[in-house]
Amino acid sequence: MKLILLGKPGSGKGTQAEKIAVEFGIPQISAGVLLRKIEKDDTPLGREVKSHIDKGSLVPDELVIKMIFERLQDSDCKKGYILDGFPRTVNQAEKLDEKIKIDKVIDIDIPDDVIVNRMANRRSCLKCGATYNLLTKKPKKDEICDVCGTKLTIRADDNPETVRNRLKIYNENTKPLIEHYKKKKLLVTVDGNRAIDVIFEDVKKILK
């Protein structure tokens, strides 16, 4: 099963991808997590990626496409995978279409004002990549990662001004993917402004 999860920054698609991965036994391939690993490298490439992420702008397609296709060659992807945060542009989607047959695309839909509030409450673990939200997905210990015990941080791209810029970029670059996958009759839209488990029940019905 090869899936794509679409949704605005902070829509909760990463959380749903994690739950799908456990339920169906396929890996979650998060473009954001892969990029942040590169971002931490003190190399020209790492610094270039960091500059894009800090501004809330899109990392160039060529870099993202190469990174994703390399990851899909790993042995854990043989039975399928969930693409989370990729593709983000129609160009990326067309490159993906050339090589891979996607089974389903799920769009987690949520209003912009809800997104801005959610992102202000998001926390990330820089060590293992786990994400939390103080409103909807709190860590067991305040500001501490459940997975590895590292102190959580607020990402530079989660402040309100940057989030609004990211939403603007999403609407200009990524929203056209909805029409792209509608035409292919692969798209299903899910209301993301609900409890995580309620959304996941809908997602499971779609996939089963």
According to CATH, the homologous superfamily is: P-loop containing nucleotide triphosphate hydrolases
Structural class: alpha/beta
The outline comes out as globular
CATH class reads: Alpha Beta
Number of strands: 7
Distance between the terminal alpha carbons, to the nearest Å?
11 Å
Mean pLDDT: 90
Biggest sheet, in brief? Answer: 5 strands, parallel
Per DSSP, the total helix count is: 9
The CATH architecture is: 3-Layer(aba) Sandwich
**Number of domains in the coordinates?**
1
Percent of residues in beta strands?
A: 5-15%
Low-confidence stretches: none
Features:
208 residues; alpha/beta; Rossmann fold; two-stranded antiparallel ribbon; 9 helices; 7 strands; 47% helix; globular
Write up this protein:
- The chain has 208 residues and is of the alpha/beta class.
- The chain has nine helices and seven strands; from the N terminus they run βαβαααβαβαββααβα.
- A five-stranded parallel β-sheet has the order 2-3-1-4-7, with helices on both faces. The chain has a two-stranded antiparallel ribbon with strand order 5-6.
